[in-house]
Amino acid sequence: MSDTGFEKARKLLEEIKSYVIDNEQALESFRIEFVGAKSSIKSLFGEIKNIPDDKKKEFGQFLNEIKNEAERRFEEEKSKFASSSSKSKSDEIDLSRPADKVKLGARHPISIVSNRIIEIFTKLGFAVAEDREIEDDWHNFTSMNTPEDHPARDMQDTFYLKDSVDRLLRTHTSSVQSRVMTSVKPPIRIIAPGRVYRNETISSRSHAQFHQVEGLYIDEGVSFADLKQTLLYFAQEMYGKDTKIRLRPSYFPFTEPSAEMDVYWGLKDEIDYRITKGTGWLEILGCGMVDPNVLKNCDIDPEKYSGFAFGMGIERQCMLKYRIDDIRSFFENDIRFLEQFKPVF
Ligand code: PHE
Q1: CB-based contact 174:197 (threshold 8 Å)
Q2: CA proximity to 242, closest of 265, 272, 270
Q3: pLDDT-based confidence at 1, cuts 50/70/90?
Q4: Ligand 1 centroid from CA 239, angstroms
Q5: How many Å apart are CA 318 and CA 330, to the nearest integer?
Q6: For 42-62, how does the pLDDT look when each residue is reduced to its tens digit (9 = 90+)?
Q7: In this structure, are 219 and 307 located in the same domain?
Q8: 19 and 166 in a common domain
Q9: Is residue 31 part of a domain?
Q10: Looking at the domain assignment, is residue 99 inside a domain?
């Protein structure tokens, strides 16, 4: 009889080791069969009374081993299912779930305004010309009728490159005028957007870097009336078809005569009073007829050709359009600031 007890126990151990557990249901059957309160091991303990006294201890230890083995295997298999079932759940595709939001970028406000300006002038047949930001003295100043010692150089505080009197960061996009005029022959009709630099104290109203758009038109018989009509068209496209403009006499070394253009902004609220200094008029750009000296400097015959030029700052127009009160916001790249800009033109 004693053999029967050991025999049964050995068989049970084999069964426990070879039991196929390939799903959670099989695991549960295994648990009921070998681990639970009514497991077959428990019933084997009842066999002890049939074991000879000298083998009782051995038999008891053997049953304990089997019990431990059953528990060990159960825990092992259980942990496998636990990790694989959570994995399979997260891998599952739930087609009813709302889609993740796609984060859309917004254009930088400077790009929006500058693209709009380009678009308007493109319709008039102007081509985009871009050039370098590190310029030489000649293209930025001398060719533009601003030789050394000319007092007008003080109008624009310049960043010179280290150890150089000739290399500088362009102070205006007017440098593109001489770049273009020395490389192509008239008729010339270009618009030149770009970044410019001036050695100015940074504050909410001025920055050491900003953007301009330059315009240049050179052909036979170009007159001041052409300039005025072109600028009126621009202002009405940009600020609305009833927009009024006015030209005030001004001075630039590279244009003669020179003017500044204002648009009528109105005096609807307190802010309008502040930004127009109570006049309702806003200064938008500088312009004029290209000085014959500039044409000569660039090997264009002033007897045959004439032209006009204008230059405007982008930040200022952007600040007006979007009511931004600190110019530094344009260069901080704060996502919360940039996200707000959807085209409004
Ligand atoms: N370059 C001038 C400025 O930066 C603007 C300008 C351009 C004026 C072309 C006249 C003609 O202030």
Answers
A1: no
A2: 265
A3: very low
A4: 21
A5: 10
A6: 888 888 888 888 989 999 999
A7: yes
A8: no
A9: yes
A10: no
